[in-house]
């Protein structure tokens, strides 16, 4: 796993995150505006967009732009990323500004959404630091770390950070978004081939907490 900052010369914050063969480029962009429905409320907004390059997978995928609309999976993932980031940002302290984090998958081998969240936090944090250096915001707008990891039950065994081969055959597939302090932001768990028990879910959660602690340590090293 690696987090490489400063990938973009233009974006206020950027990070290339690698989980094994999965690579996601995350770039945070600041805009001096908020969505229309948020105007005049004295707080900002953090959102995300997600996409996969045509050859991020084994076979070329058609660009969603060519079909004129985003797919349901794409919309679900970018909303997941946005919710995870907003959970650890003081939106009132941000002021009436919007930060959009673009997460583009360069190479996919499972866990693209969880890698995107982990790297997006670094890009967002660097964007907020950029703003703080220019006295646009005060300190501590970022309230905590947030990272995410996938877990699953493969051949009867709980597995952390599944690759594509494991994910495609897993009986249970789960994604956990967890803050640095250990609070749960989001849990997605699905029985792909067989149902799972409460005990198995708790085992996956235990694995996820272990993985997120390592990811948060990696985030701290990256920004240190």
From TrEMBL:
Record key words, sorted: Nucleotidyltransferase, RNA-binding, rRNA processing, Transferase, tRNA processing, tRNA-binding
EC number, UniProt record: 2.7.7.56
Exoribonuclease phosphorolytic domain location: 1-127, 146-209
Residues the entry annotates as binding phosphate: 73, 111-113
UniProt GO molecular function: 3'-5'-RNA exonuclease activity; tRNA binding; tRNA nucleotidyltransferase activity
Catalytic activity: tRNA(n+1) + phosphate = tRNA(n) + a ribonucleoside 5'-diphosphate
NCBIfam families: RNasePH
Function (record text): Phosphorolytic 3'-5' exoribonuclease that plays an important role in tRNA 3'-end maturation. Removes nucleotide residues following the 3'-CCA terminus of tRNAs; can also add nucleotides to the ends of RNA molecules by using nucleoside diphosphates as substrates, but this may not be physiologically important. Probably plays a role in initiation of 16S rRNA degradation (leading to ribosome degradation) during starvation.
Subunit structure: Homohexameric ring arranged as a trimer of dimers.
Family the entry assigns: Belongs to the RNase PH family.
Protein name in the entry: Ribonuclease PH
Organism: Lutibaculum baratangense AMV1
Phylogenetic lineage: Bacteria, Pseudomonadati, Pseudomonadota, Alphaproteobacteria, Hyphomicrobiales
């Amino acid at each position: 796993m690696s987090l490489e900052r400063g990938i973009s010369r233009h974006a206020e914050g950027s990070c290339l995150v690698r989980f094994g063969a999965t690579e996601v480029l995350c770039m945070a962009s600041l805009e001096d505006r908020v969505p229309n429905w948020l105007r005049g409320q004295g707080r900002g907004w953090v959102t995300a967009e997600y996409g996969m390059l045509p050859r991020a997978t084994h076979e070329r995928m058609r660009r969603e732009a060519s079909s004129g609309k985003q797919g349901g999976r794409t919309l679900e993932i970018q909303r997941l990323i946005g919710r995870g980031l907003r959970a650890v940002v003081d939106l009132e302290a941000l002021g009436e500004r919007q930060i959009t984090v673009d997460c583009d998958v360069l190479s996919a081998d499972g866990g693209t959404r969880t890698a995107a969240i982990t790297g997006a936090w670094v890009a967002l944090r660097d964007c907020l630091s950029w703003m703080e250096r220019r006295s646009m915001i005060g300190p501590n707008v970022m309230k905590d770390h947030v990272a995410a990891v996938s877990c699953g039950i493969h051949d009867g065994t709980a597995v952390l950070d599944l690759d594509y081969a494991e994910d495609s055959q897993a009986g249970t597939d789960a994604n956990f978004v967890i803050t640095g302090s250990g609070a749960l932001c989001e849990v997605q768990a699905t029985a792909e081939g067989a149902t799972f028990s409460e005990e198995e879910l708790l085992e996956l959660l235990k694995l996820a907490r272990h993985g997120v602690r390592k990811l948060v340590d990696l985030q701290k090293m990256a920004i240190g």
